[in-house]
Design goal:
InterPro entries: AraC_E-bd, GyrI-like, Reg_factor_effector_dom_sf. The protein is an alpha+beta fold and 166 residues long. The protein contains 3 helices and 9 strands.
Length: 166
């Protein structure tokens, strides 16, 4: 069962790249991003954010593993002041999220996401909203270790309400 949270507007600094499930370049994205984190003067804490921006809610209704989305490797910042030029800016807008704790390897997360979208969401009082999805990787995140933990943030809104138009 997730916890439901309202995320305040959150500023991120990072790198975003278009990719697909089949053309997954997550490893390369993080390898490019991690050395740059030392150059971010306004970084807040040690958490890492893996953000997915999908081209609309229909992305999940007619899933195609070749369909592109944008993935970000990022960290939260207090401001974008003095940010290195190699990095991009991303705003996570205020909104309601279902937050799920995931334990396992990154390679095994797909069935967990499928259960969220096909089982939990279908039986909940919520529906997907059109905002970024993201994972927060804190101190319990251990990469490919089976005991690794991270929080998966799924944007939701109460059933019967109009969502974000972005």
């Amino acid at each position: 069962m997730p916890r439901i949270e309202t995320l305040p507007e959150t500023l991120l600094a990072g790198l975003g790249r278009e990719m697909s499930v089949i053309g997954n370049r997550t490893r390369e994205l993080w390898q490019e991003f991690m050395p740059l984190t030392r150059k971010i003067p306004t970084r807040q804490g040690g958490d890492l954010y893996s953000v997915e921006i999908y081209p609309g809610l229909d992305y999940f209704k007619a899933f195609d593993p070749k369909r592109p989305f944008v993935k970000w490797a990022a960290v939260p910042v207090q401001s974008w002041q003095d940010m290195p030029g190699e990095l991009d800016k991303l705003v996570l807008p205020t909104g309601l999220y279902a937050v799920f704790r995931y334990k396992g390897t990154p390679q095994a997360v797909a069935p967990f996401y499928r259960r969220i979208l096909e089982e939990w969401l279908a039986s909940s009082v919520y529906q997907l909203d059109n905002r970024p999805h993201f994972a927060v990787m804190g101190p319990e995140y251990k990469g490919n270790h089976p005991e690794s933990e991270e929080d998966l943030w799924i944007p939701v809104r109460p059933n019967g309400t109009m969502g974000s138009i972005s």
